[in-house]
């Protein structure tokens, strides 16, 4: 186990297998929230935070409970319940502690339960990282690093896209393409650019 | 007794979720944030439930 | 709303993907070929119909405060069932869809229908709504899938992922058949737009289809606006005529 594994995990999760442009997870917030830059930053911070905690908890649950008792088939139900209650606890905690934090970050938390990116990363960790032989701590560290990279990649794309959106608002787009269609085409071109990063590792 | 493990696990997780959901609902949203919360809900994926409320 | 209207509304008028933009994740991710789109659509039909039936059947016993958790548990149960059945009978489809089978749980469409329709209507209506909306979703996925596979390979294949009704993969349609009437040994897939089977093509293809929908809707709206203006002009003309006649009558009466 070396540092190179983590560097590879974080770069590949953030740039090469970008969560929005390559894996198509979290398209809803991508098209919905990214109209304003401030909302984009709040949303991506909330997603990053919940994603890291959720992947640590679900990986632990899978390795130490579900696999040990031979019931990995209930992982979908268990994961969605864990993520949903986690979101509730985090929201409750933020609501109680800090009003300004709630205003900038907490208001996006109720939308996160039905965000595919969180559940997608948790399930992806099990299929891509978990094996019968990998030690618990090593797997957990790689899973958390992957989640961190994925969250950063999510924030990067959503923020870049919100800036493009602000430009698009002012430009003269044909009526039929206004709104979502032109956004999707812009996303396609961004995705084409990210396809070129596949060779950096 | 093996079959009880998944049943108990799912039962526990469901009650954990419902408990946290109820606790969270009991804590009121700070007054000044209410407008923003509704607005954000309507502009993202909850379009269907949002139009229903109107 | 009649039962037939309830069934048909999901196809064009209230299409989940083309009109409401719900469930965009699978609409982009699994539509690289016609077959994966069809398979995903059918799984969603099953989950949506069963969850709608169960939600509408138990709606009396679910307290209003905890309805969202209850719906999520019901949906997750059916998704697990569907995942197991797919793994048993269509392993290639299961491997091709991968993480997007468990992700049906968080598909906005299913939770949205449970909340907006099934929790307020009878079991039969909810079942019809589930089948109709699910088939509308399937229709949208299949349209995107056919467009992408056709642009990428120049033909439509069946039997690679869904091993039902055929023994070996067959080509349903291919441009080669037409072109080879005039030339010899021409293979269209050498000249396909490969980008449409890759992630960028998904965004661009869906963008094109949504633009077509928006164009049609704008034209319809414009026509309706013109018709409304004409109707108002007609009404104004009639009213003016009446006024004139009344004035004429008044003048005649005054003349007497």
Number of domains of chain C: 2
N→C terminal distance of chain C: 59 Å
Oligomer: heterotrimer
Number of helices of chain C: 9
General form of chain C:
flat
Secondary-structure element series of chain C: HHHHHHHEEHH
What is the arithmetic mean of pLDDT of chain B? 72
Helix tally of chain B equals 3
Quantity of strands of chain B, as a count:
0
Write the layout of secondary structure elements.
The complex is a heterotrimer of chains A (201), B (54) and C (256).
Chain A: H1 3-16, H2 27-32, H3 37-66, H4 75-97, H5 99-104, H6 116-128, H7 136-170, H8 180-195
Helix pairs in contact in A: 1-7, 3-4, 3-6, 3-7, 4-6
Chain B: H1 4-26, H2 34-43, H3 47-53
Chain C: H1 3-8, H2 24-29, H3 34-57, H4 67-89, H5 91-97, H6 108-118, H7 123-153, E1 155-158, E2 170-174, H8 175-179, H9 199-255
Distinctive features:
heterotrimer; A: 201 residues; mainly alpha; globular; B: 54 residues; 0% strand; elongated; disordered C terminus
What does this structure look like?
- Chain A is mainly alpha-helical and 201 residues long.
- Chain A is 71% helix and 0% strand.
- In chain A, α3 crosses α4 (75-97).
- The longest helix of chain A has 35 residues, at 136-170.
- The mean pLDDT of chain A is 87.
- Chain B has 54 residues and is mainly alpha-helical.
- Chain B has one domain.
- Chain B contains three helices and no strands.
- Chain B is elongated, with a radius of gyration of 17 Å.
- Chain C is mainly α and 256 residues long.
- Chain C contains nine helices and two strands.
- Chain C has a two-stranded antiparallel ribbon.
- In chain C, α3 packs parallel to α6 and α4 (67-89) packs across α5 (91-97).
- The mean pLDDT of chain C is 89.
- Chains in contact: A-B, A-C, B-C.
- At the A-C interface, α2, α4, α6 and α8 of A face α2, α4 and α9 of C.
Offer a quick outline of the entry.
The complex is a heterotrimer of chains A (201), B (54) and C (256). Chain A has one domain. In chain A, 71% of the residues lie in helices and 0% in strands.
């Amino acid at each position: 186990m070396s540092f190179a594994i983590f560097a590879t995990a974080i770069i590949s999760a953030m740039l090469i297998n970008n969560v929005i442009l390559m894996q198509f997870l979290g398209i809803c917030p991508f098209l919905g929230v990214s109209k304003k830059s401030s909302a984009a930053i709040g949303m991506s911070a909330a997603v990053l935070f919940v994603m890291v905690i959720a992947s640590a908890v679900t990986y632990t649950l899978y390795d130490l409970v579900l696999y040990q008792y031979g019931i990995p088939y209930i992982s979908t139900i268990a994961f969605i319940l864990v993520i949903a209650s986690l979101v509730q606890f985090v929201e409750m905690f933020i609501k109680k502690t800090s009003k300004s934090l709630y205003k900038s970050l907490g208001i996006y938390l109720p939308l996160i339960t039905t965000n595919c990116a969180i559940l997608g990363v948790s399930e992806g960790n099990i299929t891509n990282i978990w094996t019968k032989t990998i030690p618990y701590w090593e797997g957990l560290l790689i899973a958390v690093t992957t989640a961190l990279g994925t969250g950063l990649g999510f924030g990067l794309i959503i923020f870049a896209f919100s800036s493009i959106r602000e430009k698009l608002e002012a430009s003269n787009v044909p009526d039929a393409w206004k709104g979502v269609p032109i956004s999707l085409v812009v996303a396609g071109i961004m995705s084409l650019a990210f396809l070129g990063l596949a060779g950096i590792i | 007794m093996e079959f009880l493990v998944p049943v108990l696990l799912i039962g526990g997780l469901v009650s954990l979720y419902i408990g946290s959901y109820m606790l969270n609902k009991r804590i009121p949203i700070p007054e000044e944030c209410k407008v923003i919360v509704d607005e954000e809900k309507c502009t993202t994926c909850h379009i269907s439930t949002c139009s229903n409320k109107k | 709303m009649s039962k037939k209207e309830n069934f048909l509304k999901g196809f064009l008028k209230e299409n989940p993907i083309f009109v409401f933009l719900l469930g965009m994740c699978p609409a982009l991710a699994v539509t690289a070929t016609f077959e994966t789109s069809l398979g995903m659509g059918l799984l969603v039909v099953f989950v949506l119909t069963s969850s709608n039936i169960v939600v509408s059947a138990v709606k009396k016993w679910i307290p209003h405060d905890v309805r969202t958790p209850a719906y999520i548990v019901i949906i997750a149960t059916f998704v697990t069932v569907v995942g197991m059945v797919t793994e048993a009978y269509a392993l290639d489809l299961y491997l091709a869809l991968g993480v997007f089978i468990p992700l049906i749980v968080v598909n906005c469409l299913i939770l949205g229908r449970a909340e907006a329709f099934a929790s307020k209507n009878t079991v039969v209506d909810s079942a019809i709504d589930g089948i109709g909306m699910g088939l509308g979703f399937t229709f949208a996925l299949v349209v995107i899938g056919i467009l992408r596979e056709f642009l990428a390979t120049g033909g439509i294949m069946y039997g690679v992922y869904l091993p039902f009704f055929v023994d070996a993969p067959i080509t349903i349609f291919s441009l080669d058949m037409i072109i080879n009437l005039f030339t010899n040994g021409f293979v269209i897939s050498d000249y396909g737009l490969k980008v449409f089977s890759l992630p960028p093509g998904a965004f661009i293809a869906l963008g094109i289809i949504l633009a077509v929908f928006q164009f049609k809707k704008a034209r319809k709206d414009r026509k309706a606006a013109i018709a409304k203006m004409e109707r108002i002009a007609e009404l104004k003309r009639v009213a003016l005529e009446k006024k004139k006649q009344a004035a004429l009558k008044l003048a005649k009466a005054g003349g007497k």
